[in-house]
Every structure is written in structure tokens, then in C-alpha cells.
Amino acid sequence: MDKKLSRQIAIITGASSGIGAGVAKSMAAEGAIVVINYPVPAAKDMAEQVLQEIKAEGGTGMTYACDVSKEDQVIKMFQDTIAMFGTVDILVNNAGLQRDAKFTEMTLEQWNFVLSVNLTGQFLCAREAIKEFLRRGVDPSKSKAAGKIICMSSVHEVIPWAGHANYAASKGGIMMMMKTIAQEYAPQKIRINSIAPGAIATPINHDAWDTSAHLQQLLKLIPEKRIGQVEDIGKAAVFLASDDADYVNGTTLFVDGGMTLYPGFEDNG
Ligand code: NAD
Predict the structure, then answer these.
(1) Is 224 helix (H, G, I), strand (E, B) or coil?
(2) How many CB atoms lie within 10 A of CB 20?
């Protein structure tokens, strides 16, 4: 059977760890050529390790250092990827981070830092991707779409999160940016969707599942009573990037074990 993403070039931001690494592996297993983006030289080894694991399974790609909040670096990442592989077919806007603080104690630096990576970074990468999708148009030998973007949002695009106003604002912003550009470019056969993960076991939320007590507390928020794995997100990303999702545009796919189902009401509220 044909692989779902054969020969498609996929840039995955923040792919040296966690969900990004998981998505890169899932997409490579479906035939995509993956660009494993990482932000700083210190993360190079981790990115190379992800690439080696992909190659060991018969996949291919390259690693690429770029801070997604820096316009010149993002433009160069797309130029270099196109020079190397000819085009870009898929962007997974995954890079993200937290700088938590009570709202009255949150510094402007904490606010700006989170917004610059989580939201401005997605804007910069999506803009360069869409320019390339418009230049190339549909290549029917690869996909029915001229290009696909998957924005990594969060359940916190709809669930308020005390102590994390910068993060929640960035994810709410992603939701409206995603919907707006999906509306703007659907006529050109570009599909743009989000994934909203619930709690997925990765470095970003290590403190929430590192001990049995923390995990039990976390599981109270998850009707399925299990923490998510990066493979859960990888499968969703492959679906959204593939022609199986050809009529899916401008929507958020919640992959959260039911976290957004108001679990506080499970037992009659
Ligand atoms: P993670 O910390 O493992 O991954 C984040 C990645 O982003 C890291 O690889 C990091 O190096 C990279 N990054 C940070 N700043 C960057 C920059 N300026 N340029 C490029 N890359 C940068 O955590 P994760 O859980 O895998 O997070 C991935 C995405 O999923 C984030 O957007 C996060 O908000 C989102 N998310 C995660 C969860 C979860 O439960 N793990 C839930 C909801 C949403």
C-alpha cells in the first residue's frame, strides 16, 4: 500500500524532543522527508539522534538549526530547505515553550518571550510556507492540496489556565490565526488546521507526571485516565497532512483523552 505522505517535504519545528520528534518519526514512517528543526546549537545532538532513529527505520531528512521567533532565520530555513529538497509540502508549527508566573508577577520579558516563540514563530513559518505553496501550486503526484500546515495548539486555546496567561494567550491566538489563514488560502487548495493536545508526556510538563502522586492528580483531569503519548499526536498529524483529510480545513482536532469534556462534572458536578 502507498504511504500517505510519500516524497512530501515536511518541516517540523521544535522537533529535537517531545511531540515534534514524535511527529517527525510518524511522518517519516509514512514516507515524508523530514526537516527536524531545533532552536539552538545545544540541541543539535538531540536533533541528530531523532534523525538517526528515523534513518534506522528507513526514513530520511535533515536537521536544521533555526530560532522560529527570528524572521531572518525562518526565511533562511525555508530557502535552504527548498534549495536542498526542491520545495516544502507540509509545515508542522510545533515549537513552543512556557514561562509561567502569577499574572501580577509576570514580567514583560516572560510575556514577550512566550508570545514570540509560540505565536510569532508560527506566523513567520506559516507565511514562508504559504508563499512556497502558492509558488508551486498543486502537484497531483504528491497530494490534492498545494500545501498543508498543522499548528500545534493546546487544550488551552479554550481552557483558561491560571498562572499561564502568556501561554494561554499564545494558544488562543494560534486558533484565530489558523482559522483566518485557512479561510484566506482555502481557494488556493492550502489546508491549515490545528492539533490541540491535552496532557502528553514530554519534557514541557515533566513535573506533572514525574511522580505517582503528580500523575494521579493529573489523571483527575483526563476522562480516559491515561496520559497521552507523542504517538497519539503523530497519528493525528499524519491524518491532517494526508489526503484522507482533504476536506478538513480550518479546524482544531482535540487529542486530549476527553480533557475538554469538563471532567469536573463526571460525578454529577
Ligand atoms: P518540548 O519542550 O519537548 O518541545 C518543545 C520544542 O520546541 C523543543 O524541542 C524546543 O527545543 C523547541 N523550541 C523552543 N523554542 C524554540 C524556538 N525559538 N525555535 C525553534 N524551536 C524551539 O515540549 P512538547 O510537549 O513536545 O511541546 C511541543 C508543542 O506541543 C508546544 O507547542 C506545546 O505548547 C504543545 N503542547 C504540548 C502539550 C503537552 O502536554 N506536552 C500539551 C499541549 C500543547
Answers:
(1) coil
(2) 29
How far is it, in rounded angstroms, from Cα 177 to Cα 192?
Answer: 10
Terminal-to-terminal C-alpha distance of the chain: 48
**Whether residue 166 has its Cβ less than 6 Å from ligand 1:** no
Hey, what's the cell of 28? Answer: 517519516
Residue 1 has pLDDT above 70, yes or no: no
Which residue among 50, 64, 72, 97 has the greatest number of ligand 1 atoms within 8 angstroms of its CB, and so is best to mutate? 97
Count of other CB atoms within 10 angstroms of residue 108: 7
Residue 97 Cβ inside 6 Å of ligand 1? The answer reads yes
Domains of the chain: 9-203+228-260 (3.40.50.720)
CB proximity list for 108: less than 8 A, separation 6 or greater: none
Q: What pLDDT digit, counting tens, does each position of 62-111 carry?
A: 999 999 999 999 999 999 999 999 999 999 999 999 999 999 999 999 99
- How far does the centroid of ligand 1 lie from the alpha carbon of residue 219, in Å? 21
* DSSP classification of residue 2: -
Radius of gyration of the chain (CA): 18
Model confidence, pTM: 0.98
**What is the layout of strands, in order, in the sheet containing 147-152?**
60-65, 33-38, 9-12, 90-93, 147-152, 190-197, 252-255
> By three-state DSSP, how is residue 7 classified?
coil
Ligand 1 mean position to 14 CA, how many Å? 6
Active site residues: 167
Q: Which three cell numbers stand for residue 236?
A: 493525528
- Alpha helices, H only, 30-104: 44-56, 71-85
